[in-house]
Amino acid sequence: MVATLSQLFDNDYDEEGFRTCSVTGLEIHRTAENHVKLFGLTAVVAMVVGGIFAITVAMTRWELIGLIGEANYYRHLSMHAWNLLIFWLVFMEIAILYVGGPMVLGRRLPLTKVAKAGWVTMVAGALGINYFIWTASGAEVAPLLTAYVPLNIPTGFFASAIVFLVGATIAAVPFLATIWKEKRWGTDDTLPLVTFGAFITSIIAVQAILGGIAAFSYGLVWKVGIIETINSGAYRTLFWTIGHGSQQINLLAMITVWYFLTHVVGGAVVVSEKVSRSAFILYLFFINLGAAHHLMADPALGVGWKLFNTSYAFYGAAFASMIHAFAIPAGLEAGRRQRGLGGGLFGWLTSAPWRNPVFSATIFSIILFGFVGGITGVLMGQLQLNITWHNTFATVGHFHATVAVGTTLAFMGLVFFVIQTMFRRDFVSGTLASLVPYFYAGAMGIATLAMIYLGILYGVPRRTSSVVRNIPGADFSISAAAPLMSLFGVFAVLAILAGVLFLLVALGSLLFGARLERGDDAGLRPDGGLTPDGGKPVHAVDMRGTFAMCLIFMATFVVLYVLNWFLLVQLWSIGA
Amino acid sequence: MPGPFDKPEGNWWDEPVNRREGMWLGIAGVWSLAIFGWMSGFTRFGDQNPVGETYEVDPSEYRETVQAYIDEADENEEGHIIPPGDSVYIGAFRFNWDGLPVVLEAGQEYDIHLGAYDVQHGFSIRPEHSLSQQINLQILPDTEWVIPMSFDDPGTYHVICNEFCGQGHNSMHGTLYVEEP
Predict the structure, then answer these.
(1) Distance CA A292, CA A398 (A)
(2) How close, in Å, is residue B88 to chain A by CA atoms?
(3) What's the domain of life for this entry (chain A) (predicted)?
């Protein structure tokens, strides 16, 4: 066991601890690589825990099965939320920072003791949160994700949440030190785009984490009796800086991963440094305002505040996302056209390595995140439309489209990539590995759409164990939604099975996969190498395929926008 | 051609942008401003806005206000509240709704007062005859929110709590009857 584990953390390094990656050509130091592995493996463990609770939560919401009763439902839902929405993603994101910083720049990871201290603190916080969720009893209730005061949430939960957030901040320090060293003692060169994206991600993360520490500290001092009363509206505003901010970290990390993976397995290039970097700058200023989406149906905030914040300041951040929506596929199109890989409108895409799960996971992540997660995010973030979305199952559909389909799928691709390029193991079954993104994207995509329709068309609420077949004590239930709920249930089961398949392939390959020899690229490198030589300058390459896809996206956006507003104006008159 | 791992060389800021990428920037920019404009304008000309007066209030004071309102109100044969004026008070508490069931007249504008006595709750309401016509408002224990509403269609409207408020949350249901005047 120990031998197997220590093998996982070894590679053919030279005397100075460096090796050259056979896929990316990057100079990788042992310190950076081993810490990426440490955080990445921890993330996968959190995914296993959260995934187990996906089964009990989904099979309870599918009331035909009704797996667990109300008494345990909130506890299970809290475990599902914290382990998947926070731990799986944040541990992955620290790993991504270490890839985007020291690995891409060809440096050692500085301050490795700080990195380890960060890991230990994060793990301690995560274990504490799991413990206090699981043992909440008597007058105390499970927190769900939000720990909305003045609910009686275990005191230890607030303390553990603070510990976890402090740990994530500590773990980010070695990355920030890398950037500091690069700019202070390195050359005057511009940072590579991936490093720049990771750097903006880290700033967004620090903003979110500070808000989170403030929110949970406010809850903690109230719980221990230092202050007598707590303002629920103020807590909500503070909480959502981390509650949604954590998901903006996911977004930026995921987009950075999109640029990274489309390049290394698809041969994408950067079509405009100026445009892509400007989009990241827009995120820096505006993306965290999106936290206001959760407060549109709140009483205690003014209309002007709501309009400015929910629109990310006149949709500055939505504009940024639409920029990436063009730039990333265009990078793929330009890179492949320059190499003569596929003609016509979409030949560059159809000729791409679709059997490679790293590639297909990335592309499905881009498409589903944009079409489902992105569009619904803007819709539900409109002040008025929000009253038809707020706290319905449609909201859950939205963030499963962004996080469970979009980010998780991209990170699944990244895990596969890390298994081959850093752990240097081949897949135990190439066919099963190829199947994972198709199976997961298909099943989770349909489950997600079902959630959205259940919320919008039937008003099925979130955070409840029974409402479709039975509202205890009432002669009313939302029984008309039962058939669609069954569709959701079936596809949720399939999505969970796809998740299990991912874990089996990933862990199986780590433990039993054939060792890839030095120089073996496991077939990952795109045809014709990473970047094409010569030819036209990149801006002159034809990008009409991407433009056509973006027009389809915009048409979908407009149609869904009009439909949502049409549904809204059918309502009775509401508001001053 | 530069990849995302490469440090861009030279004056990359002045590199030209692909013509179609430029067009897309225009389309996306115009759309961004358009949906902001519509949302903002709708607060002025639209009929469905989550906008109303709010007051900071102590939960126990709000409970007393709702109780005084119920004492003043009439009841019909089924024991449903008939509001004495245009104000309708609803007090959410674990795990029921004070002030419901209430009987309202279609077409009349009421000031719906929403507040809670203990923790946060969710006011999720829909008519029985059309489940897709549903709205959801957050209720906080320290705030009284006065939202004007006038119901066009007579019918039975069901209110369920859609914010987790503790063990028993899923039984929190109330009814609002809208009748022809």
Answers:
(1) 15
(2) 14
(3) Archaea
Rounded to a whole number of angstroms, the CA Rg of chain A reads 23
With residue B54 as reference, give the H or E element that holds it. Answer: strand B53-56
Joined tokens for residue B101: 């069931």
Note the pLDDT tens digit of each residue in A9-34. 989 999 999 999 999 999 999 999 99
Q: Which of A231, A314, A535 is facing B142, going by the closest CB pair?
A: A231
Task: Encode pLDDT of A250-274 as tens digits.
Answer: 999 999 999 999 999 999 999 999 9
Segment A359-380, tens digit of pLDDT: 999 999 999 999 999 999 999 9
Contact B169 A326 (CB under 8 A): no
Bridge partner residues of B114 (DSSP) = B90, B145
Please tell me the distance from the alpha carbon of residue A151 to that of residue A284, in angstroms, as a whole number: 33
3-state class of A571 per DSSP?
Answer: coil
**Domain-ending residue, one of A186, A202, A223:** A186
**Per-residue CA distances from A348 to A264, A303, A510, A516, A550 (Å):** 16, 47, 33, 29, 16
Count helices and strands in chain A by DSSP H and E runs: 22, 3
Q: What are the structure tokens assigned to A548, written together?
A: 């056509």
Residue from A391, A393, A457 to probe the interface with B (highest B Cβ count within 10 Å):
A391
Cis bond upstream, residue B141 (ω within 30): no
Residue of A nearest to B3 (CA): A269
* Residue where a domain stops, chosen among A138, A155, A186: A186
Strands B135-139 and A27-29: unpaired
Rounded Cα distance, A352 and A396, in Å: 33
Residue B1 pLDDT level (bands cut at 50, 70, 90): low
| Domain housing A19 | 12-186
d(Cα B181, Cα B179) in Å, to the nearest integer? Answer: 6
- Sorted by where each begins, the domain ranges of chain B are 16-45, 53-179
Locus of tokens 């439909």 = A563
Fold of B53-179: Immunoglobulin-like (2.60.40)
